[in-house]
Design a protein that fits this description.
CATH superfamily: Fumarate reductase/succinate dehydrogenase, transmembrane subunit
Number of strands: 0
CATH topology: 3 helical TM bundles of succinate and fumarate reductases
Radius of gyration: 18 Å
CATH class: Mainly Alpha
Number of helices: 4
Shape: elongated
Amino acid sequence: MIENTSRPKNNEGVGLWLTKIILGLLVIVVLGIHFIINHAVAPGGLLTYADVIRYYKVPIVPVMEIFFLVVVVSHSLLGFRAILLDLNPVAGIRRAIDGILLVAGTAAIVYGAWLVILLASR
């Protein structure tokens, strides 16, 4: 029988579990805002490079896009980590997984933030 309760996995901890849940909710909220602004509020949508550059000139937009990036990357990597924890790796492998995911997530966020800032500065 499949249990329908959500609780921390072994070796996950309540803090990471709760963070993953909160980030999941934030993904839904920020994704909704992202779709509304990019596809409903922007006149005719953002169809050209010039439209996107003009959009990124609005000061709140780069902040919102970087926040969206951080939330999505963090939530997805915590979810991927939870899947890997289902394999019950030994402590050394678990630490390696944590380190690799931390480096990959940090690199993705730094690169994405750099791109957003680059677009905003054009």
